Amino acid sequence: MSDDSIQIDHIRAQWAKARPDLDTGPMGLIGRLGRITRVLSREMEATFARHGLNQASFDLLATLRRAAPPHALTAGQLMDNMMITSGTVTNRINRLEVKGLVERRADKEDARRAIVGLTETGFALIDRVIEDHVATQHRLTALLTDAEFAALDAGLAGYLAKLDGREAG
Q: DSSP letters of 62-130?
């Protein structure tokens, strides 16, 4: 058991003494999920940093790369795909445009809109980064057996669907 997991159990034991009337079972689960999130995020950020990116810039480049050729979307489509605000998407586009990774082109159907697409440099970069990103994910999940991986994936997918349904309702 990790030091953090032991610490979470220690905190729960302290609460059991201080407030035996409280069921702190969820505290363990949520504490562990939070710690896992921080560890995974740190590993992903390190992967992106090796390529001069961060999570935000990776997300935008990856969204464009997943789009059908010519790998270009409007700002509105980026907002919808990435679930971010117009100000946030504009800021990200501006930063990546300065780096020469994306470019704005006039929309042939509506001159008031711009289409954001990957440059050749951006396309080549995101292809390298996604390979590194997937390798990092494999390295991190290789710590699980196949059965643990499947059970965790299914359990978390179900939990997320319930949380999302609660938010929508």
A: HHHHHSSTTTEEEHHHHHHHHT--HHHHHHHHHHHHHTTSEEEEE-SS-TTSEEEEE-HHHHHHHHHHH
* Whole-model pTM over 0.85: no
CA 43 to chain centre: 12
- Give the three-class secondary structure for 149: helix
How many residues are given for the chain? 169
What are the structure tokens assigned to 86, written together? 């117009």
Cβ proximity of 118 and 72 under 8 Å: yes
Q: What is the mean pLDDT of each run of 10 residues along the chain (169 residues)?
A: 77 94 93 94 98 97 95 92 88 96 90 91 98 98 98 96 79
Q: What residue spans define the domains of the chain?
A: 1-49, 52-168
**List of residues 6+ apart from 6 with CB closer than 8 A:** none
Residue 89 is predicted with a pLDDT of 92
Which CATH architecture is the domain 52-168 placed in? Orthogonal Bundle (1.10)
